[in-house]
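User: We ran a pulldown and think these components assemble together. Before we commit to crystallization trials, I'd like a predicted model of the whole complex to look at. Sequences follow.
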Amino acid sequence: MPHRYLNLTPLPEALAILRREFPSPGRAESVPLREAVGRVTAEPLYARYSVPVADIAKFDGYAVKSGETRGAQDQRPLPLAGYARVNTGEVLPQPFDAVVMIEDTWDEDGIPRIRKSAAPGQHIRRAGEDVRAGELVLPKGHRIRPFDIGALATYGIDRVSVRSVRVGIVPTGSDLVPLGTAPGPGQTIETNTLMAEAYLTGNGATCRRYGIVPDDTGLIREAVETAIAENDIVILSAGSSAGTRDFSRDVVEDLGGIVFHGIAVRPGKTVLLANVGGKPVLGMPGYPVAAQTVLREVAGSLLSWWGLSPVPCGELDVRLARRLASDLGFDEFVPVSVGRVDGTCWATPHPRGSGIQMAVVRANGYLYIPAGREGIEEGEEVRVRLTVPPASITRTLVCVGRRDPVLGELGNLLAEAGYHLHCCNASTVGAVLALQAKTCHAATVALPETASAWDDQVLRYLPDVDLLRVPVARTEFGIASADPLDPGSLASLRVANRPKSAAAQFLLDSWLDREGIDVSPSGVPADARVCSALEAREAGLRFTSIGCESCDLVIREELAADEGIAALIEAVRSPEFCAYLHSIGRASGDGDAPGVSSA
Amino acid sequence: MPHRYLNLTPLPEALAILRREFPSPGRAESVPLREAVGRVTAEPLYARYSVPVADIAKFDGYAVKSGETRGAQDQRPLPLAGYARVNTGEVLPQPFDAVVMIEDTWDEDGIPRIRKSAAPGQHIRRAGEDVRAGELVLPKGHRIRPFDIGALATYGIDRVSVRSVRVGIVPTGSDLVPLGTAPGPGQTIETNTLMAEAYLTGNGATCRRYGIVPDDTGLIREAVETAIAENDIVILSAGSSAGTRDFSRDVVEDLGGIVFHGIAVRPGKTVLLANVGGKPVLGMPGYPVAAQTVLREVAGSLLSWWGLSPVPCGELDVRLARRLASDLGFDEFVPVSVGRVDGTCWATPHPRGSGIQMAVVRANGYLYIPAGREGIEEGEEVRVRLTVPPASITRTLVCVGRRDPVLGELGNLLAEAGYHLHCCNASTVGAVLALQAKTCHAATVALPETASAWDDQVLRYLPDVDLLRVPVARTEFGIASADPLDPGSLASLRVANRPKSAAAQFLLDSWLDREGIDVSPSGVPADARVCSALEAREAGLRFTSIGCESCDLVIREELAADEGIAALIEAVRSPEFCAYLHSIGRASGDGDAPGVSSA
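Assistant: Here's a predicted model for the assembly, 1198 residues in total across the polymer chains.
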């Protein structure tokens, strides 16, 4: 029988259990200083000797006895009596007690002369001025910064005892193949353990990835036993789904005991935690975004309680660009793109599917909806944890609407100018509302090229706003068929598909209407299909045009002078972008197309 | 003749020259995906195939034809006609078009039954739902995050072309010895190149450290030529002082040309920039804090213009705890400790000596005083760049006043409780003023144990503040001598030194006064010296007590309940701290001392 998650543990409770049940193993290792950056000190570090070890000269010049320089004046220069030439950093020779800078002297008959007496101790760095032997340099629990390395080396410390947590990561699943293999039908590239290794290493853990273990209770048991013996924590990847491949649960239940199975968190619900010989075994969900939540919120929290120091992530208080619903009782994490529009930072959510990794790749942060909330309203202030440097937000451009693949190239062009283009998918209505609420830098709308589409679908919602419309690309739609369409028998034409684009759908409906064609019931064998001119050409089919869709960038005039938005407009209008469109067989926004012909 | 820095280039101008003169070498290298975290993409990355490749089941259950499930109702369950068992992630077999979750079925006579019809496409992940083949995954110039690794692997990308800058780091100086060597007289451990390597590697550069080159024009020339041939930028360490060891300047002047020598920045003034064969050679000052400025502001800026992405540093707007003077015309950087006291963040400056690395180790950030400012006033808002995670500031405790070495152990005890203790040196007056202005969590004052010291030196400045005084440690001072002091000849006693501690000085003066001893002129041979009982004991000398100094923690009563301050008080009063004091032969604040005896 498949297992069910009848008792979902609330996230805060799950974390409290984890913390209580698994105290820090307190492991430390000694590493050479050069490898210590980013590691956390396990013991306090003390200076081995004083720096400087003795009194030293602060400048190039002459070591003198200050008493012998008394009386030197501008009007009454004095030759130096006893002196020694010293360079910056050299130990002050006995019996001198001051340094005269070389710039403050001149030679006459080979003897340096001065115009000013030297005070005792002048231009001398006292022994121990920087640090005294035995003085504390770094307390325990300190994350070593790059510049700490120089100080530690200076104070004679060449090895450091740092905290260490060993994480064993075990991928399980007969369908998994390693990265670099071309996956066959029903096979999946094993990627979650790579991601886990990258994330947990960044959090200061010492990770060890094991080979893929097929769905076999004996083999999984063996792998878990080995990993538990060699590590402080074990992560099983894809071992917590409720399907027929759910062998991991039985294995860890048998080896130790289940602490919890299922947390009230989205994504990431199917997490499993077991205790095997006093060590935690964490079963990570197979869906990558769910796995990320578990790595971040569960494994990451444990590493932090165990004294490792995660790479800091910036936080930003922003406004939510559109309402987000959320189920009561579930802590939820939502990837968002944050951008600053006209002085206000807005977070636009990406899709929440736990298999949609691109949402996280496209996002520059994520927000947290606590279990007690049924959702967050549009315009509400929320705190976003950033996955990019905070400073990059001011150079982020958020476009809402049609995510035409050509926007990727725009992103590349903008990256050259130092901007980050974030495209968030939305319908035309969604894009227009974002423009209205000023939550995005630009909207991308795809409209049929008819007399009224712009007025009907855009302008009527923004009557008082001056808009700038920048054509991005045009797509010609039509009917593709093996043989030329017979004008005489159009009425009986059966079209195989309904186009995905609303604009193409509108064009099709208008054409059918214009030609007096009845829509045939679905499921009936078809003579023709709706597609773009490019698709028809690539498929070698005859093509009857039904009209064009225009994908435009729409910008509020008042913001068009904004440096980032100006760069965006420039990129769209650039010869590079036009050349790119032609290279992929697309028509640029002004209709200039590379040899697209209608049948 | 030694070189002078007659024409200091302003920092902004120096950076503009650097950027103009040295465009990005545009180097890229291909690395395996696992090594790509933190690197910056040199080319855009596109998905190799669609994910999912085909329509797949979202849940464990049965693949069905949706048409055949029509009519199933709670009151009229339906056995499934044609179906196939599928697990989460499996490709949907032909000719099915929907999935029924196993939880929504039950078996009867081996045939699964349903109570609800399935909609077409139900519980199916469509091919390309996550990403479509050829779609842009990451634009160029993107710093790869740990979770990006999972997505890239999923989309078939197993190698990545990333930007690369090769930095050659050459230490020069006959006085230098490598880390791990015990430095002899006049020798210095070579540490700046280690620090440079740690810092620039963290900024994404590929560093190569060369061996120490002694002060020899020919050898330096050879080293520079090799490094220039093998790298995109060369950093010469300690090659820019104006002393007799200044060979580097001559070498790079000869090999190419000096771009500038000397920048109006503190610390870091003596930086040298040369152009050798179109590549920059940066001469870094020998003083470590000056070297840090040059690494951060000059080398770091160049790497960032060349498209590398530094580890983000947090910024915080805080108030300056005490006035900082600064010379007009110099950009200046000052290490500070930031802490939040009663809701306001304050930055307390550390000493600015360019040889005082401990100031940077102790600090958690630094602030920038632009060249146009003559200083920053106390209480003025300033922006601090943090060298620690921003979140750690709320767990930072700032103590101002006497930096007794025993505070190091307090820091260790507080680290256990998750707090960071920052001790900033100040006189008793400075500490009291910080307490008055509420810019610190606690003051540490060292007072002679007399009837009036507390009133005179603390209370009179804080008449309206309720204070809590927590004894930290006591030190007994006295006169150490080889033979017992003769009470009859005390009047002719010659004391060798004046104590550094103001409290001990006060005790000495009172004692001399009490005993009717005239202060002897300095420089006269001495019979005795002032020191602590511990020092006398360790030196095996006779000891005549002159009184005790008490080092106390002083806290505003109103803040004593603050969680962090409570932890600090608890640490001072803990048995662990008392045991520590005894272990080093110090007396605890309440006078409990480990066998200190007066002569």
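Chain B touches chain A through 100 residues (CB under 8 Å). That may be worth checking against your pulldown data before setting up trials.

User: Thanks, that helps.
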